[in-house]
């Protein structure tokens, strides 16, 4: 049977085949964190724009301090002060210093800054109260404690590359180079629903035979966590009419993707597959993966549709493997969506030969990473996903791996506290 199922890589290739990044839009830089750049950003300025002090201290000519020694201080006349945001109106002459704050422009005639910690006030033993003079007991080089103009960044330099997801440091960079609006890809709009007669809303009392719907909420969170916009549709019953009207409601919202959970298997009450096929098509609906075999992908009224399995763990695992890369492609992100690392198994593992993704905790053990399983790999046990910080990938065809074997782990990004 496993030969007749579509491979994981092949399934992903088919999902991504005709997906293009969404169109770009211009938005204010403030609030663009998490969005994906659709342009390269170049600096229009030198940063800092002027040579400036790296310390609070005194702007000096380094040559004036050539003879300074602990027992032979050089005495300089303080002719003024330049604070951050000001420009000195005075030029420095030999034998003079100007008090300067961190970030303030270096006055003409100065080529170094003496840190305030090096300086003694006053002209000497005979003039303790003399605030017009300072004494310095060590020399420095031209350029010491000075940030040259363009030191951090030169005008015309590339600061942020296209297809990058903006982070807080990037927002700071946009502000520093005065780029107040940016071109970013539109956020994907994702309609989310779940179906099942056993489901009731969280907050409602459970009656016999019922469980709370967790998938629609986990899925909404997963979509939002990726940086996409989610529309959560009402719960659908296990009926063709209900599934159809929910899909139509999704279409009316104008989504870029419709994600559903459950109802795509072969059970008598699985209605999602036939209803999608009435007004669309399914490219595939079974993949050689555990957990998550009943995953479907196709189109409904021309809109990409992904039917995730109903088991809560299967749904989250297939979201990671199939929905995340699809969302990433729509968002304009490039490269892998997971960090994959080599880990050593603490436990021996068994598999049925499908490509398997085992919930595990990866941790650092001296010079390498190790992984322990989070317990039962039953796809209904959501707590195993709560504990996991990684999915261990067991390739198709492998049925047994001993303790100590090396496998690939996909990091889920949430560090685990307990093993
Ligand atoms: P199905 O795909 O409909 O056969 O469902 C498989 C398993 O997942 C069943 O035990 C369902 O009760 C459970 N399940 C389906 N949908 C959800 C949901 N939205 N929230 C929690 N569990 C679900
Ligand atoms: Mg069901």
Describe this entry's structure for a reader.
The chain has 419 residues and is α/β, with parallel strands linked by helices. It contains seven helices and 28 strands. The chain has helices at 8-16, 168-176, 215-225, 240-252, 272-278, 312-331, 382-387; strands at 24-28, 41-42, 52-53, 57-60, 74-82, 96-100, 112-115, 119-121, 133-136, 146-147, 158-160, 181-185, 189-194, 199-200, 211-212, 229-232, 257-261, 280-284, 289-290, 296-300, 303-308, 340-345, 349-350, 355-365, 368-373, 390-394, 400-401, 406-411. It has a six-stranded mixed β-sheet, with no helix packed on it. A six-stranded mixed β-sheet has the order 16-13-17-21-20-18, with helices on both faces. Helix 1 packs across helix 6 (312-331) and helix 3 (215-225) runs parallel beside helix 6 (312-331). The protein is elongated.
Task: Please give the structural blueprint.
Elements: H1 8-16, E1 24-28, E2 41-42, E3 52-53, E4 57-60, E5 74-82, E6 96-100, E7 112-115, E8 119-121, E9 133-136, E10 146-147, E11 158-160, H2 168-176, E12 181-185, E13 189-194, E14 199-200, E15 211-212, H3 215-225, E16 229-232, H4 240-252, E17 257-261, H5 272-278, E18 280-284, E19 289-290, E20 296-300, E21 303-308, H6 312-331, E22 340-345, E23 349-350, E24 355-365, E25 368-373, H7 382-387, E26 390-394, E27 400-401, E28 406-411
Parallel strand pairs: 5-6, 13-16, 13-17, 14-15, 17-21, 19-24, 22-25
Antiparallel strand pairs: 1-12, 2-11, 3-10, 4-6, 4-7, 5-9, 8-9, 18-20, 20-21, 22-28, 23-27, 24-25, 24-26, 26-28
Helix pairs in contact: 1-6, 3-6, 4-5
The protein binds adenosine monophosphate and magnesium ion.
């Amino acid at each position: 049977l496993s030969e007749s199922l579509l491979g994981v890589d092949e399934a992903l290739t088919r999902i991504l085949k005709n997906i293009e990044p969404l169109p770009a839009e211009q938005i204010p830089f403030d609030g663009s964190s998490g969005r994906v750049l659709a342009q390269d950003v170049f600096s229009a300025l030198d940063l800092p724009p002027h040579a400036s002090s790296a310390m609070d201290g005194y702007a000096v000519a380094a040559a004036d301090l050539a003879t300074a020694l602990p027992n032979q201080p050089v005495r300089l006349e303080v002719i003024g002060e330049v604070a951050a945001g000001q420009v000195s109106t005075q030029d420095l002459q030999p034998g003079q210093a100007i008090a300067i704050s961190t970030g303030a422009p270096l006055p003409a005639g100065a080529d170094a800054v003496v840190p305030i910690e090096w300086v003694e006030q006053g002209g000497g033993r005979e003039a303790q109260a003399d605030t017009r003079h300072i004494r310095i007991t060590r020399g420095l080089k031209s350029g010491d404690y000075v940030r040259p103009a363009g030191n951090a960044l030169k005008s015309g330099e590339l600061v942020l590359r296209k297809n990058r997801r903006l982070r807080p440091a990037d927002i700071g960079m946009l502000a520093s180079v005065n780029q107040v609006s940016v071109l970013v890809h539109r956020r994907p709009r994702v309609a989310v629903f779940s179906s099942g007669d056993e489901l009731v809303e969280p907050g409602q009392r459970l009656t016999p035979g019922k469980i709370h719907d967790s998938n629609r909420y986990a899925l909404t969170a997963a979509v939002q966590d990726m940086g996409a916009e989610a529309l959560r549709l009402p719960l659908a019953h296990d009926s063709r009419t209900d599934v159809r009207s929910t899909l139509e409601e999704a279409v009316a919202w104008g989504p870029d993707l419709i994600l559903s959970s459950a109802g795509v298997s072969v059970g008598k009450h699985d209605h999602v597959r036939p209803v999608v096929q009435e007004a669309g098509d399914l490219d595939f609906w079974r993949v050689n993966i555990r957990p998550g075999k009943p995953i479907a992908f196709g189109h409904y009224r021309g809109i990409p549709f992904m039917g995730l399995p109903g088991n809560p763990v299967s749904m989250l695992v297939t979201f990671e493997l199939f929905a995340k890369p699809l969302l990433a492609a729509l968002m304009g992100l490039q490269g892998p969506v997971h960090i994959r690392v080599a880990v050593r198994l603490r436990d021996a593992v068994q598999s049925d030969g499908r490509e398997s993704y085992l919930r595990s905790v990866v941790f650092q053990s001296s010079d390498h990473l190790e992984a322990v399983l989070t317990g039962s790999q039953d796809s209904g046990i959501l707590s195993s996903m709560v504990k996991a910080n990684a999915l261990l990938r067991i390739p198709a065809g492998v049925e047994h791996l001993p303790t100590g074997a090396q496998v690939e782990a996909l990091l889920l990004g949430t560090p685990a506290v307990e093993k």
